[in-house]
Amino acid sequence: MLKAHVPELDLDLSTLGIRPVAYKKDRFIVAIEGRTWAGRRVALAAKGFADDRAAAIHANHIALWEGGLGDPGGSIRTTRPIAVVPSLGLALSEWLPGHHPQASDAHAAARAGEAAAFLHGCPARLRPVFTPAGFLDNLDRHARLLSARAPDLGAVSEDAARRLRDLSARIDFQAGTPVNGDLSLDSFLIDGTTTHLIDWDISCDFDRAWDVGHFLTQLRRFGLERGQASDGSRAAFITAYGRASGDAPGTDFPRRVAFFEAAACLHKAYSAACVGRADWHVVASALLAAALDVTRKMGRDRPGSTADTG
């Protein structure tokens, strides 16, 4: 299969080794290592999907690579997309060295902020184009799923979703930006002076504030789960992002980020419940409390408002 789809690598198949990296309900990742017939080391990431996403993800990966994230000498770059095997639902890319940041590492968070701004300034046009309406439907779905899995949290999650839907009518969403869609600690690899952006499974065209708010929530969540203080990293990320992006985020950016951070708190409360760690209820409750706190502040701060949204 490899020889047929990536003949340019000239792989010596007898040297190949496969190492499992991650298995999830709908996808898996394996590392493939070996050498070419000329003796050059080759390291690939093979990501397989249970559905037909591989080709679309690979197309977005190529667009980002060609749009500025493929500069081999750049301090911010992505992995090289290599091939897609539609019949197997498999996308192949370069395997890069590095380590994922920790929630408490403010310096790494600042580098992640710079890299996120670089991604959002890329001229690549990704597909699909996600819409606020689709986002709100997804938000309501997560609230229902969390209510079904943890009925004692149902009222809080549905209240947060209701508040966010109400607030959305007064948010100036700004699509047209290439986003990772699931920006988290695992979206970055720190390798010396280079920051790698990886994982384009949910990449799309949407509002850049979603990536920013989502990453801030993930810092909060993993800080809670790992017992790490994340406030410094959150501040470092948003400061570095603002410095690197300048005026590009557009109007109402802090309010958009706050909105998406609250929404991501609800999403990740459900994720915590699904993962089922021993402390999941504590983490989910803290995330929902943060979501409600943000929505209440946004309700008080909106133009012409002097009271909470409900």
Note down, in words, how this protein is organized.
- By secondary structure, the chain is an alpha+beta fold.
- It has 2 domains: 2-94, Phosphorylase Kinase, domain 1; 106-301, Aminoglycoside phosphotransferase (APH), C-terminal lobe (Aminoglycoside 3'-phosphotransferase, Chain: A, domain 2, Alpha-Beta Complex), CATH 3.90.1200.10.
- It has helices at 2-5, 54-69, 106-120, 132-149, 151-168, 208-226, 231-245, 253-275, 280-301; strands spanning 11-23, 27-36, 41-49, 76-78, 81-85, 90-94, 177-179, 188-191, 194-197, 204-206.
- It has a 5-stranded antiparallel sheet with strand order 1-2-3-6-5.
- A hairpin with a 4-residue loop joins strand 2 and strand 3 (41-49).
- Helix 4 packs parallel to helix 8.
Q: How is the topology of this model organized?
A:
Layout: H1 2-5, E1 11-23, E2 27-36, E3 41-49, H2 54-69, E4 76-78, E5 81-85, E6 90-94, H3 106-120, H4 132-149, H5 151-168, E7 177-179, E8 188-191, E9 194-197, E10 204-206, H6 208-226, H7 231-245, H8 253-275, H9 280-301
Parallel strand pairs: 4-9
Antiparallel strand pairs: 1-2, 2-3, 3-6, 5-6, 7-10, 8-9
Helix pairs in contact: 3-7, 4-5, 4-8, 5-8, 5-9, 6-7, 6-8, 6-9, 8-9
CATH superfamily of the largest domain: Aminoglycoside phosphotransferase (APH), C-terminal lobe
Q: In the CATH hierarchy, what is the architecture of the largest domain at level 2? A: Alpha-Beta Complex
How large is the radius of gyration?
20 Å
SSE order, one letter for each helix or strand: HEEEHEEEHHHEEEEHHHH
> Given the C-alpha coordinates, what overall shape results?
globular
